[in-house]
Amino acid sequence: MRRTSRSLVFAAVGWLATSCGAASLPTPAPTPPPQACDGTPTGTADELAAEYAATVHPLLLRSSAEGGCVSCHGPQAAGRFTVRDREPPRVTFEHLVRTGLLASSGPDTLVDRLGRSDTLRMPLGGPTWSAEERASITRLACRVEVSGLTSSCGALDPGTVPLRRLANAEYDRTVASALLAPGRPSERLAADQPTFGFDNVSRDQTFDLGRLERYRDVAEALAEDTLVPPRGVEVTREAEGLAAFTHWGDPVGPGQGSKTSDGWRFARIKSRLSVGLVRAPYAGAYTVEVWARGTSANHYSCQNPMTTPPVNACQQAMVGPPPWGAPWRQVGTAPVPPKLEVSIDGRSTLIDVQASELGPFAKHAVTVDLEAGFHSLDVGLFNVVFWSGEALDVTLEVDQVTWKGPAALPRADTARLQRFLRRCQTYGCGALAVRDVLETLWRRPVTPAEVARYGPLLTDAADAGEPFSEGLSAVLSAALLSPEFLFRPELDPQPEVPQSRPLTGFELATRLSYFLWGGPPDELLLARAGDGSLVTDEGLRAQVERLLADARARALVDRFAWQWLELDKLSQVRPTSSDFDESLRAAFTGELRALLTDAFEQDRPVTELIESPRVFANARLARFYGLDAGGLGEDTFVPLPAGASGRGGLLASAGVLTMTSHPARSSPTVRGAWLLDRLFCRPPGAPPPVVPPLGPTTLTDGGVRSVREVLDLHASNPQCAGCHANMDPLGLALEGYDELGRARTRYPGGAPVETTATLSTGAVLTGPRDVSRLVAGDDAYRTCVTRKLLVYALGADPSRFDACAFDDVRARFTQGGSTFKALVRAVVMSPMFRARRPAQPGEADQGAP
């Protein structure tokens, strides 16, 4: 099977190259007739762009401490306003014009932003530009607006969505749906790197030959498991095919590990050789056979007269270095046999190898019970032996390693075997089976030419005398490797023409299912795509409601909300408090999942996620919060009135509070930065290259600074003041919760906790409830949620969103009651979701296709 799919790796690379070429330059818009603006001629588009480059762009490139924008609005900014500091100013100019941000009036324009002083908006800490600098951008904005270059909000621009690869989680769900194969086959692939907070944004999705090779290996395994009756594995890897040594986690140096003509030689000290990932197709008992030989060393026994009673220093050396600086004397020797270490997923088994100087290799076997999937296998020398004088080294040589099993095969899964054999089981009707494979995997009808392209795979299998299921398995493997499966193609017939077009029914079905379900469309959705009803307003609305009512819509919580709020970090925190354990981590996670699920499924306003009147708790969390745990279980999270506990809502959840703390203390700065980034889409800029650390809390006279004093001292540095003026007041108002989210009134040293903080606008926050009210009542929060969901739905750079199309989604969302489902409906019914146009120069996202 490997022979049939390997060549298609390069065919896939060619498909990507021809499908992702650069678009031609658009035809320049006609120059408007000269007009006047404040007595200044308007000028041509080129002249306006030159004025922007000379007078405005340098101001935007200042750091936030200098009143500029690039610190927070650089290329990675998750917002409409982006300053492209590494691209020509013309690119930023065209972006600002196209999105309507370079206008003399209107909300959220550059002129409007410069006039604000709200610390939760922009610029950081209030406007710091001089009157002359403000006048320069106002004058330019006026000239641009009068010129007619800015958007008039006529026909909404759907924008462009670059070619997207299936994210790893989407790959798993697609495989599970198409092949009835549960599990995580993507665990063999490199992890996705989030961009703008999400793993499905095309700009930074990696796709190279190494990843394609991994896809090939996984595809072959999936195809065999689906269509070939259960059979075991037996794979032998010769010494020359094994990877390099490691020595205590580092590459082995000369003399400690080397490759010989007979095998790999481990010498003298603990070393390990990676065999790599091995596959267990089914759960069961698997055996590792290692052909090895070795030589023992004369183990010097010695006594240290400075210890009472005498201690054998050489025995001590088996687990650590001997006390070389202390006097010792040799009292005897004993042979030390080499110990073969066989490690599977980090669990080791040790075997004494019979020492035989250059004797034959002998087989040493280890049997372990494993779950189905891929497992890491390492072999090596376990001994740690120190030597002196003429002592011989302990050595071990490995010739080959064999992996085989399971000891007992499972019964055949009839449903999976019949997945693609239900209509055809012979080579005579092979084209019909190939069509079933391709249409199931590619999520659309296929052409006769596409079916014929896979015919040679069946012909080769038939000529080799293989059963039909084996031949079709080769077809399935190749189809799983096709870009039509690995990507979500939306190929424009005329990419050089900058004209929008509605999505086809099948393109729309794919966008809709991966948005709401995180996986492929089902048969009914594909049927509606095929009969044309999905592209109508009525038909699309009906399918949106059906998909939202399905249990698979939990992907909006598990994927969108989890990534939007960075809740994966909760699985990585390591608080030092003795009160924290894994059951508490699970309780924190369960509360957040219940809170988000309730908000989505009950279609609550997005503000209620912040100001929820309920606490979702199991018995463990209720006890932690000091609530009545009577009648509660450990596995179910039920809503309880927030009541006097002060809990309720996202910002009072212990999970979020723990996730935004340091291991041993709370952090107002981290909490404030998370809130600005995740809930307001205003991420603080990167710190300056050399940032002084927070000052000490302990004074030289024995006194102790409060957290507030330390932060104030830090923020007094001009390089830090701009960002900390935004973050710290929000975090200080949440100081009533410690690093585990426990309510408190005093710090561990006894100092009282102060939760009153003043924003730069003069508004006073007196505690957590004020922060929640501030967030829920600010329109920037609803705008941010809109932007985040659009990024997730489209997988596109948010700076590319057309201002008018974005405002249309925002208006639909508000008209629907600002609920989560209203936002989903607004996104789906928008031209941004239902149509596309080819990307033009300066607009296409950079990075992988």
Helix and strand layout, with pairings?
Layout lengths: L1 H4 L2 H12 L16 E2 L2 E2 L3 H16 L9 H4 L15 H10 L11 H5 L16 H17 L16 E2 L2 H12 L29 H19 L5 E6 L6 E2 L10 E3 L4 E4 L3 E10 L3 E12 L1 E7 L9 H5 L11 E8 L2 E6 L2 E6 L9 E9 L2 E9 L13 E11 L8 H4 L12 H13 L5 H6 L1 H9 L4 H14 L1 H4 E2 L12 E2 L2 H12 L6 H8 L6 H13 L5 H10 L17 H20 L4 H5 L3 E4 L1 H7 L12 E4 L12 H6 L8 H13 L26 H9 L2 H15 L24 E2 L5 E2 L2 H10 L1 H16 L8 H13 L4 H10 L1 H4 E2 L13
Antiparallel strand pairs: 1-2, 3-17, 4-16, 5-8, 6-7, 7-16, 8-15, 9-14, 9-16, 10-11, 12-13, 12-15, 18-23, 19-20, 21-22
Explain what this protein looks like in three dimensions.
It is a single chain. With 849 residues, the protein is of the alpha+beta class. Helices cover 38% and strands 14% of the residues. The protein is built from 32 helices and 23 strands. The strands form eight sheets. Strands 4, 6, 7, 9, 14 and 16 form a six-stranded antiparallel beta sheet that branches. Strands 5-8-15-12-13 form a five-stranded antiparallel beta sheet, with no helix packed on it. Strands 1-2 form a two-stranded antiparallel sheet. Strand 1 and strand 2 form a beta hairpin. Helix 12 packs parallel to helix 15 (468-481) and helix 30 packs across helix 31 (820-829). The two termini are 29 Å apart. Mean pLDDT is 79; it is low at 20-36, 241-263, 300-332, 386-392, 697-704 and 845-849.
